[in-house]
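Record minuted for completeness.

…
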Amino acid sequence: VVFERIGDYAKDEILIVGDSLTSDIKGGNNAGILTCWYNPKKMENTKGVTVDFEITNLCNLNCITCYNRSGLNRCRKELSMAQLSQIIDRLSSEFDCNTFSFAGGEPLLHSELSELLNYTQSHPEFKFSFVTNGTVHNEAFFNAIRSNPEQYRVQISLDGSTEEINALTRGKGSFERTIRFIKRLTDFSFRPAIKM
């Protein structure tokens, strides 16, 4: 009803601020809209709400379905590691958030990825997700996942079950790189989520 009244809108330009984890925040998450939980009473987050960060605008692919056209960006815009750690620490201490998701663009292209991975490893009390296209093979990333697989969730995007189908959306050659990425994770018994 609210969005009908707003009219024409772009999901990536909306932030829902709400005080209910079960309606406002869950509804925004289900609709693919960024959310912010207003929690002045400092209630415990028992609903498993995840805080989503788009940590970089850069991407190494130029998928035709990308809502923010990350593959066209040539000027790097990122949340710095200082900003990320400050935000995560505050959300954790003030709002009892403990699950954080990193996307982009392609999060594995973040200029301070090593520092981010060190930060995640120094906070085993948190859960971290990475939403990736699976084409950037970063040893520090694989080592972090291998060191504490229960702490991480990895969602990998594919747009087809073959190179030919996937290439229609993601470009030639990305399918095989993504399959190799998945294999690297499953070689040490980590099970990523594959989104098609």
